[in-house]
Each structure stands twice: as structure tokens, then as C-alpha cells.
User: Fold these one by one.
Assistant:
Number 1:
Amino acid sequence: MVEYETHSHDVLVVGAGGAGLRAAIEAAASGARVGLVCKSLLGKAHTVMAEGGIAAALANVDERDNWSVHFADTMRGGQYMNNWRMAELHAKEAPDRVRELEAWGAVFDRTPDGRILQRNFGGHKYPRLAHVGDRTGLEMIRTLQDYAIHLGIDVHMECTVIALLKDGERVAGAMAYDRERGRFRVFDAKAVVIATGGIGRAFHITSNSWEYSGDGQSLAYRAGAALQDMEFVQFHPTGMVWPPSVRGILVTEGVRGEGGILVNREGRRFMFDDIPENYRSQTADNEEEGWRYVQGDKNARRPPELLTRDHVARCIMREVREGRGSPHGGVFLDISWIKSKMSDSSGHIRKKLPSMYHQFKQLADIDITSEPMEVGPTTHYVMGGIRVDGDTQMSTVPGLFAAGEAAAGLHGANRLGGNSLSDLVVFGKRAGEHAARFAAEQSSSSLPADAIDRTAREALEPFDRASKGASTEGPYQVQHTLQETMQELVGIVRREDEMVRALDCLASLRNRTARIAVTGNREYNPGWHTALDLSNLLTVAEAVTRSAIERRESRGGHFRADYPEKDTGYAGFNILVSRDTDGSMRISREPVPAMRDDLRQIIEENK
Amino acid sequence: MGTSAGDSMDVVESGRRAAERSDASAGSETRSATFRIWRGTATDGRFEAYTTGVSEGMVVLDAIHQIQAESAGDLAVRWNCKAGKCGSCSAEVNGRPRLMCMTRLNELDLSEPVTVEPMKAFPLVRDLVTDVSWNFEAKKRIAKFSPRAPDAADGTWRMQQSDVDRVQEFRKCIECFLCQDVCHVLRDHGKHDSFVGPRFLTYVAALEMHPLDTVNRTGELKEAHGIGYCNITKCCTKVCPESIAITDNAIIPLKERVVDEHYDPLTALVRLFRRKPQ
Ligand code: SF4
Ligand code: SF4
Ligand code: FES
């Protein structure tokens, strides 16, 4: 009935950012026939936006660093909600993954003795982020892309997956449409890796592009997989706030790593005012010590600007709320002050933070070498996602794997800067390896013709509605309302009554989505694409809201004004989201597995 | 342990001044502007005019999005980062190849309609979107990076910063293909079969100057990649949003390498000129 092209692969990787590319490389290297689906052109994924660096205990700059310190930092930053097995593997394997990038052509900044240079970042005890100025993500994605194109991987560019297909319990492929012509494609695959990134588009102020509509989380959920930790959304403390059209664009934490300070309108460096108990012993208590730290003094402790992102974001919100913000409702982030400390500060800033210099100059008329920036929190990352096995990255659905931001576990309640790029390559590799192994063990499967038919029909409904001329509305307005709702009611500061209201709004948005009509035809039609993405956005928005209601405490990225303290009663479980047989969303609590003794000891030693 | 140093008040003062200046330059009163946007395909298309409100700090891409939401739901445009980092939103604004997300409306004359049209060097898909797949194929034909064996005691390599500065300059490329769009060899002469264009000459330069790489690409540069077609007009360098010195730092040194091994009259001439004492 419906027309489509069929493509057959052993492993289908959905998403071509760092995690997807690394998974595809690994699967192809093991001999699997690999298909790689990208929502945009190859090399444009959100990974290019990562600025600061990739965290790995190479110990090139401070020889005291090793995997166990990195492990302990990651667990502390995640408030011990992390999947500890993933945190262990990540800390152990990240250095090899970084060296591998170098062997594939990446050119990191160098130490004086010619090794990979590492910089300071929030929550990392030692300088740990390998970097290339402030465009590390671009370096990483280009390296992986240029390596992957010689491995015989079938790349499907500008192609969006709209459903996973199953054969009985296991995954058997996926269905997609191509942007250019709007035709359907069916992928027959023995294993599928989801590496579609995050959900940032569910919020109004975000550093994420249009692509981050929670596709992977929603596809997996509809295919029966469990999601986990969806209440933990990271609001990055420093997004641009002015002018309005650039609101939300990321300002790298690297600015603070290089010595940038946060100041309120009274000229107070307010980050010294509130240093959490579990970081007090590691944090400088005066400006002079903080400066020595960013200059590389190994005996100094880090300045409070480099506390974890959740904490810094809340301190900024407090300043703004209490009337001490900057003219456009943020605070000041200043790197230019270092001119009092070094002779060529302007050249230094431009060398270390070239794209920040460029970004502010061009978009805001601000010269960051001589003036402060105005910054405020922006939706940046979701710690939660598809629940996976720590070793293999397989979800609760056989044959369905997930890696990178789309997967949950590594970061717990809050992600440390720099741990995302390393997450992508460590677990991208693992997902690719295990997906290929799983695929090799499967006999071929049959694709469900009825599901293919239904998916196609539903996808085309917005066009039919337009021709029938019933009461309809456009996709952009509905998307906008959804983003405003989540920003207002389920944002940085949450309350039960507001979130319950958000659920009502989401229900009515779902009804409105069922009435959306789009104009034009199927070829490269962004209105249609927006309409199709909406159902994913609604699913993840509901998952975030329901999980956030369930966690009646404040922890990491999840802050409840009605329960502002951490509650140890909530430390023992992760919140899971799954689809009930009647199609409704079910929330459950899953105890955090007891940690291995040797790992527990590492945490004690690093307290 | 809060601090309130005199220094920090300077920060506030200069921050306030910057904010005011930014308000002024952004133009706080709301106006409107007209955009002439290419709609349709190469064979069946025309410019259509859309008028939309202009608010503070807007870039061309914002205007396009606003028009999409208000009156042209199916207006095709490619974008991702909206911060000049992904190289997706290339188009020609008032005839100049630009990133739409980095072109502020206050640099344009809004008393006249602003023309926005797709890149010319590639086949048109629809509206502002072109088929750039040729670029991905061209890259595949370039001999891949092949490092020498690790030679440091720890099984890796040592490279000095000064030895990688130049390569890092080339690796800033965001693959926006604006340089390809403006190069007359591709745009006017359609030599896509025999010339890889400035983006990929820069890519070859990054590989050739990589301290670890072992391959010699001068043969393929001359034959398959057609470096001889470039007559150093420097149009590519002028449009590069990453300010990469494509001609001076990448193409000319490559031409010199080629000329050392394979004679190329134009480069020989350039070289003679460059070597003249000032
Ligand atoms: S300098 Fe060469 S590559 Fe650049 S635009 Fe001119 S002819 Fe093309
Ligand atoms: S060299 Fe410059 S203009 Fe050319 S593709 Fe790269 S960033 Fe764009
Ligand atoms: S949208 Fe990424 S460069 Fe313009």
C-alpha cells in the first residue's frame, strides 16, 4: 500500500553525533554492515557545539590524576545517583578513547613538552579536559566523521526516524522519511543503536538546536523500553541573555576555567557566598587562591565559579530573583579582569577562547577582552534517558542499544562539564561493539507490515487535515506553547502545583497536535517536520514532568522549591518511566544497586 | 567569605555601559522589514516578498524563522546551531555568501528589501536549500590521514604547539561551503568533476601539514583534485566565516609543493614574485 525504499543492515545507528559515529565505526570495524542515519547533514550534529573539552585522566598536566579520582569526581557531581558501573568504565576507558582520537588525526592543544594539554573545569579535581581552544566538539566530530567515511558505512543524511519496528520482543529495524523528497524508508536491521542526543527543544530557553526533540527517548519508550532519571535536566549556568534573538546560546565553562569570574550588579563576586558542604574542602575561600588555581598552582583550591553546574545555575537565579542581576536579567561573567594579572591578556583570551570572542563580538557587540558578558541559565542537557546495561548499553528491549545523551546512567543527577564528550566515545564504542555482536547472533527477522502502514498513514495525516479544511492549526504555535509551558512550569525551580498544571497543558497540547495541518508538499517541508517532532517532544515533556513530580526532594539538576533539601530517603532509587499496556505513562521506583566495595572505598578515599 | 573589591565595581560599570551600547545598536523600537526570498525549485521558482517585524539583535535566520511561523510554513531552510558553529545555514544575502545565523539585520540596509537566495554553486533542492552532497563525495576521494608509528615512550606522539598552529587554523573549518559557492571554477565553470574547491584544498593542506601524517598528496592534488585550476583570486578567503587564510596559508603552499614535483607555470610566477626582496 504505502510506498517505501528498503535498506538492509546488520546494525542501524540512529544519530550521527559523537556517540553515533563512534558506534558506527566500532560496528563496521567488527565486520558488520552498518547504516548510519543522521537527521541533518553529516558532521552538523550538536556535538559541534561542545566547546570546553573532553574529560580523561591522562595526567598530562597534573600527575596526581588517575581513573579513580575521575570516577569519584563523576559520582560526587552526580550526587551518587549514577550507574556506578558506567562511571567506572567511563573513567577507566576515556584516556584510551582520547589517544585514539589523536591517532585518527585530531589535533589537541599541546603541553610545553608536546603532549595533549588539559584544562580545569567545574567539579574536576585536576586539570582534566583535553581541548582545542573552545571548539573541541568540532574537532571531535570532524575526526570521527573523516575516519568513518572510509569504512564502507552507508550514511543516510537528512533522514528522520519516526518509529522503531519490532519482530516479537526484539527490535527488527526502523522506519524513517528523507527530508529532501519526503519519501519513506524502511530499515531492516538486527540491532539498532539510538544516539539521537537530548530533549532541549522541549524548553524555550535552550542551547540545543531544532533536532533535539527527544526522538530517541520517545522512539525507545514507544517500543517498550524504560526511561530513567528524566527529572534530571541540566540548566547550564552560562547562556547568552542579550540580545533576545541569541538568548540561550552557550557560553563555555572554559571561560571560568581560564579565570572568568561571576559578579552581580553590586560588584560582588557572589559565588563565594554559598559553597556546598561536600565541596568546601576543595574550594578556594579567597580570590587570590582561586586565581592561583587557574594559573596551575597545584597547592591551590579551585575558585567557586568552578563548582558544579546545577549549583552555579541556582546561585545565578538567586541573584537575579533578589534584584542583583545585570541589566537584561542575568549576571556578569568577566574574563577581561585578568588584564590586571598578565601583560597580553587580550591576545591570551583570543587564543584560548576564540569562538567566544567571535560570538560576542558578532552577535552582541561585546568585546570580551575588555568588557564583561551578560549570562544566565539555559537548558543544556538531560542526564536521564534510555535505561541501559552499563557494560553493553543494551536497553530493556532486546537488540535496542543507546549511547551518549540519549542514554541514562553515567551522569546521575548532574553532569560534569567535559564528561559528555568522553561519554560519547566511551559508550559509543561499547554500544557499537555489543550491537554488532548481538546482530551476529540473530537470524533474520520479519518486518511488521501493519506497523509500517500505520506509521506512514499517521505521518501523512497533517496533509490530509489541510485538504479537508476542518478546524486546524499550524505546528509552530503548538511547539511554541509547549516550550513556554515547560520553561515556566517545569524549569530550573519546580513546584508540585505548577507541574500538575503542566500535565494539564500537555494533555491539551496533545489534542491540539491531533488537529495540526501543514501546507505545501512532502519535499523539504519544515512545517511537516515540526509537526512530526511534536509527538516526541510531548512524550519527553510528560516524562520529565511526571518524574519531577515523583521526586519530592532537590538533588542535582532537579530543584523543588517545595522540597528544597536533599532527602536521603530519595537517594536509594532511580525513577523509571515506561509505557503501560493501556498506553498511559507509568512511573516506578527502581532501587540503586549496591556499589562494589572497592569502588565504595575509592569514594571514601576521595572525600 | 563574600568579597566586594573595588575591581569588581569596574566590571559592573563596564558591563552597564556595554549593555546600554548593545541596546542602542540593537535598535529597541520595533520596525518591520521586507525580505525577497527565493521560493521553489531551479526550474519553477521566483522571489517572493515577505514583511515581518524586526526586533533587537535579530539575524537573518531569525527573520526566516519568523516568516516560516507567520506565513510560509513550508519555507525550506537548513540550520542547526544558530551560533556560527555548524555551517548549515549558508545562503546569499543581498548577493553575498553568508551564514544567515551570523548576519545581523542592523548591518543591512532595511529601507530596501533584503534579498535571500540559495547558494549558486550547487543544485537547488527547494527554496534556500541546496544539494551539497557533492562535497561529501569529493572529500572521500582524498587520501586519508595515515600517521607514522607512535614514537614516544608511552606509545603516543609528541607534537609542539608551534608545529600544529597552522593545522589547527585549517581545522577550524565548519564546512559551510561558502568558499566553494564563491569560487568561480565551481560556480561559473562547473568544474566539479575535476576540481575539489577551496574547502578541500584546505583539507588537503591540513593533512599535508599534520606533523604525524606520512602520505604525499601532491600527485593527487595535481591530477584528481585539480589544484591547477585555482588562479588565486582569493574570493574564497574573503567569505570564510572562520577567517581561515585559505589562499595564502593553504593553497599557495600546496601549489609550491606541487610545483616542486610537477611544473605549474602560474605558481612558478607567483613564487618568483613572492621571493622578490621588498
Ligand atoms: S583563490 Fe582559488 S580556490 Fe579560492 S576562489 Fe579563487 S580560484 Fe577559487
Ligand atoms: S574554509 Fe571557511 S568558507 Fe570554506 S567551508 Fe570551511 S569555514 Fe566555510
Ligand atoms: S546555523 Fe549553524 S552556522 Fe548557522
Number 2:
Amino acid sequence: MSNAVLTGTHFMLGDHACAEGAIAAGCRFFAGYPITPATEIAERMARRLPQLGGVYIQMEDELASMAAILGASCGGMKTMTATSGPGLSLMLENIGLGIMLEIPCVVVNVQRGAPSTGLPTLVGQGDVMQARWGSHGDYEIIALAPSSVQEMFDFTVLAFNLAERYRTPVILLADEAVGHLTERVVIPPPEEIELWERPRPTVPPEEYLPYATDESLIPPMALAGEGYFVHMTGLTHDERGYPIINGEAHERLVRRLLEKIRKHAPEIIRYEEVLMDDAEVAVVSYGITARSALRAVREARRQGIRAGLLRLITVWPFPEDQIRELSRQVELFVVAEINQGQIRREVERAAAGQVPVAGVHKLGGTLITPDEILEALWVRKP
Amino acid sequence: MAANTFSGNGSFPFWREPLDAQQIPHLSTSITIFPDLCKGCGYCVEFCPAQVLATSDRLNAKGYHPPEVVKPEACTGCQFCMRVCPEYAIIVEKKLEVPT
Amino acid sequence: MGTQTVTPQAVQHPYTRYLRTDRLPHIWCPGCGIGIAMGAFLAAVDELGIPQEKVAVVSGIGCTGRVAGYVKFDSYHTTHGRPIPFATGLKIARPEMTVVVFSGDGDLVSIGGNHLIHAARRNIDLTVICVNNFNYGMTGGQMGPTTPHRARTTTTPYGNLEFPFNLPYLVAAAGAVYVARWTVLHVFHLRESIKEALQRRGFSFIEVVSPCPVGFGRPNKIGEGLEEMRFYREHALIQNGLHPKDAALSFRDRIVVGKFVDEARPSFLQVLEDHFRNASRDPSHREG
Ligand code: SF4
Ligand code: SF4
Ligand code: SF4
């Protein structure tokens, strides 16, 4: 489609850049339910998708939205939904199904102040652990945290690529500030956008086992309508996809689902380091707060503190090896996030008492300023 | 086919066999029961319109009494037993028999 | 004529090619009607000649939810209450496929009730086969949205204080273009009705009243499946064309069955096709 990728330089809303990223990644199905501050993604998709032969459907709630994108993905489409915390609470039911059935799809959560209805129009980063553990049971998830409008575009493309390659739902863990920010975004020409597709069966239907894998642990996915007579169930299942209710089968399946992500974590995990080479203090941050953190680190350097920034791109899987590595180098971690320490606890866990971990936290509604982080660097500097 | 059973359950005593009965094509049915699939609900026996089936005395592998065919000649080939069996344990085949 | 002694390989049940035979026998109780309803659906697909790879079945959770695990189509056993939205996505992605939601009354009408009425409202091209056994069978016979007033279940030990849905009235009011109800005893009517529903564009709904000796028959002194079926034989009244508001089930006197709604209205996918044409003419789209 000629206008699928809006190549060029734009002054664009973060939520709109997310929608354009999805379209550029080949998303042609969006099911959603309006919710501040993610509604602009739905609106953009509603306008854009029909021109590209795609479908926007507004569902009756987020439960349905999530179920619909799973169904459409089983039919072979690249699919997405977008919501905020209250909606994610509902979607988590079927995110669990998506993980169990290994259905690629992208869920955008533009975080706002929470809990409950909280602060619909104001920023928050309090859904980090909800994204990690919100659905019942043990599972691994991939979640990406964009810090700019450019990354709303880039990381949405990346989210689709990871979802397809690893056959899993991927969460784009944005926040209200990035979603509602308008700034420059450069959309590359389509040929420069790398796209990954889900693995597909190479054997005829008679030989196909829907959940048999090679050492990649990622099973090839047959689509509906191809004659493979796929059966998928949220029950614990064997390689044929048939339910099997016992501990050994459960161990085999869930272990593989966990290992599928863990094994590939080195390829999945992404972070950015700024001025870390000689840093004595590492600021760890992500999303909109990472911008304040960057400013604080630069200012600290001017003031003589050897600070550096570790900006998480994949919040999940969490780069704990890198934190462990850094704890041999730095004297202090300072984690800045608009919640009460959801990632700080992860840093503490990875640093394992080697290095003190401080936090700059807010509850939501306002951003963390560079000064607030800087203050923490001064106060805590050993 | 015997004249007195042509009406199905044989309850219509004044039926006479047409003189050309042996020359015209007629329906032939065959009932196959897979007794080990049966869970003994009794639907086939109860709702066969021609009382072709009865509950047998024998027990199947699961401990149920499967049906048996007691009046094969009465079968109309309606296939109700086949469609109402929740276990798909009965097959009724129909074929048109053309006399040679 | 008569019983033939044939080896199992020699005769094949007409449903066999549509079943995952390696998963049989199914888990349903003796006398459960779900197997009959599933068979009627398989017969309908067979008689319509729909290619097997062009049929998808989506189920939710519960006894009827297990249907997806037995049929040899692309089949999806999803979460409780969500088969309709899952199927909605699947149908939009694969409009050439016949997508059928096969689930129970608790799944579709209680936890999934909102999805049911909205799917009917948007007239999405799905056929929903809802097996109504008047209770939650899988969990051992609790009260559900279709349990008759005063009926006994494990969670209504003094009788159901609430009142059940009249399902045909509900889905007809919400916009379904085809609405019918049969009991599993009406297995031929049911098959024909499913055939009709599969050929309609838009949202079609068939309620299948089914015996559940364990969860409903015994506690309510109707008895085993056979007694429940006899009850249908004695109390069922075929009333095609009856206004759905008059189709409430009464468990003491009559069970009205029949085809209540059969009308044409543009389906979601039909409207969507127009939408594509209009959108591609919209000059304002480039920058959104
Ligand atoms: S085919 Fe009809 S008549 Fe024959 S045994 Fe079955 S139910 Fe009875
Ligand atoms: S209907 Fe089927 S399961 Fe029931 S008694 Fe007859 S053969 Fe057995
Ligand atoms: S509990 Fe009821 S609905 Fe469930 S399998 Fe048994 S008879 Fe059927």
C-alpha cells in the first residue's frame, strides 16, 4: 500500500506515532475501547486502517478487545490494541491466553496515575509490575518503554517484530507524557524498516505438531484456514495442542514457555547507556522519566559528579546481568520512576546488596524533574 | 422382505404385499452398533419410532448395557438413533435395492 | 436388511471425518446432550458441503466449551466468556471461513453476556450455537443465567430466587438476524436450523436445550437424561415465527421451540466492505 508508511519528518503526537509504527510494521487489525490517554491511538487507527485494507473494530470492552486481537492473529493478521491501566487490568485475562497459546500481538499501555480510575489525564508509571505479573501464573513477558515520540514509532515496530519472532504478546509500556507529547519523528522509507514474521510450518498438515519445537523453543504457527486443523487450548496441552492434565505435562509446557523467552533474553534485552564508562553513580530510568534522568546526569557531570544513565528499553525481560555487572563498577544506583519503587526493587535484587540502591519516586500526576534526581545524586553521593 | 413387516413395526394387519413387490426398488437399511462406545443413555431405544432396538443384557467395557437390534425388519432407515446417540455409537446406512 | 456384522473399518460414521478421533471418547456424562448438538452441527457442515478447512470453531469454558477440542476444524478453546470476541477477530481476519461459536449458556450469557449482545448488535457474521443445560455443569451444578425460577442447584438449595433469561428474546432484541431454539430431541430440526444459520450473513443464534442429568435433571427431580428427553417429547411445542418475547421457557408446562427470527440486515462484514470503499476516497487520510 502506497501510504502505509508515511516516510518523512513529522511533528506528531506520541500516540499517533505509535499507530503509524503499527501500520509500518504491517498491523492491519486493531480492536480497542476508548480510554484516556490511549484514545488517540484508536482514533488514528480507525482513520488509517480502512484506507489500507485493514480493520478497526471498537469492541464492547477491553476483555473483548484483547480476545479479538488474539482471534485475528490466529487468522494471520498482525494485530494490536491500546489501553491504559484500567483497561490493562481487563486485558490481562486474555494476555495469559495469548502467552499460553503463543499468539503474536501487541498491547499498548499508555500509563496514567493509578490505582483504580486514578488520574485519567495525568502521567504514571505504576503498571510496571502489572505488566510483568498481572495475569495469573508463571510466565515471561516482553515490555518496551518508549521515552520519545520517535520511540513510540520505533518501539511499536520493534514490539511487532518481537511478538512475531517469539510468538508472544508484547506490551508497549508507554506513559501519558510520551503519548501526549508532540515532537519530531522521522519515519524511514519502508525498505529501511526491518520486519520479522512469525515462524510458519514447513511440513504438510499430516506431519504438523502445533506445539513441537526445535532448539529455538518457538513452535511454527499454522493459521486458520490453511488445512492444518489447528487446535489451541488454554488448558495445559501437549505438542498436538491437546489438553493434558497432569504435573509432568504442565512442567514441560510451562517450562518451555518460560525458557522460550529466557533463552532468547540476550537478543531481546535492550538498554541505552549514557556516560556510563567511568560512572560512579548509575541512574536507572525508563520512559518519560529517563529524559529527566538524562538531564540530571549531564548536570551532575557539570557539577563534578561522575554520573551515568542506564535507560531501560526492555523493562521486561529486565537486564539483571547488566545491573550485576555495573554493581562491580558503580558506588550507587539511583532509580527514578513514577511509582513507589517497582523497578528499584528489581535493581536491588540484581545488585544483591553489593551497592546501595536509592530511589526517586512519585505516585503519578506530575513528572519527576531533573532537579529532583540531581538532588538525590548529591544527597546520596558517598 | 416379508409382507407382514412392510409397514415397519408390523402392527398394521390388513396390509397386503403388492403383487410386484419383488420387482420395484426398495430401501434396505443396515444398523451397525459399536457397543463399547455406548454410555447407556437409552435414547436410541426409547426414541426409535419403530422399536427396532432394545437394551441388551450384556455389559460393555465401560459397564453400560448397549442396545441391540431386535426387530431389524421394522427399521425405516430414519437414522434417528444415529443422530440422537451422544456417543456416535450407531451407524444406519440406507441403500436402495434394485431387484435383479 | 438387518444387522450386518461388519468390521468397524468397513462402515464409518458420517461424523468421523470431522472428529479428532484420537481424543474420543469425549468427557461428557451419560445422557448429556452436548454430543447430540455437536453431531447435528457436524451433519449440517457435511450436508452443506463446506470444505473442512474453511470452518473454524471457537469455544469458551465449560462442558460445551470442550466441543472445540473434539471437532477436526481449526478449533480454539479460549477463555471463559470470550469465544465471541475471539471469533469476531478470527472472522474478520478470515472472512472466507465459516466461524462458529459453540459454547454453553453460562459461558455465553453470564460471563460473556455483554459480548453476546454486542455481537448481535453489530451483526458480526458468526453463528452461535448455545447449549443450554440450565446450570453450570462443569463445576458441579450451580445456578446460572438460565436456571428456572425456583429450580434447585447446589448454590440455590432453597430454589432459585432469580429469574432466567429468555435467550431468543434477548438476542433478537440485540439485533440477531436468525434466532431459533430446539431441544436435542429435535435433532433433525436442529440440523436443518444450523444449516440455515450457517448460510445467513450476520449474527445467527441457536439455543439448544439439552439434558444435564448430573447438574440439573437429578436435583430437580426430572431424573436422568432419558426422563429429561421424555419431558421434552411431552412438553415441547413447535411454534415457528413466534414472537421471541413469547418464547420464554417454562419448566413446568411447555418448552416452545422453533425458528423465531429469520430476517435480512446488512452484516458487519457487508458494511465493512462499503467502509473500505468510502475510506479510500477520503482525501484527509494522508496525515490522519
Ligand atoms: S434408523 Fe430409525 S427406525 Fe431404524 S433403528 Fe434407527 S431410529 Fe429405529
Ligand atoms: S443412544 Fe448411544 S449411548 Fe445411548 S444407549 Fe443408545 S447407543 Fe448407547
Ligand atoms: S455436567 Fe451436565 S452438561 Fe456437563 S457433561 Fe455432564 S451432563 Fe453434560
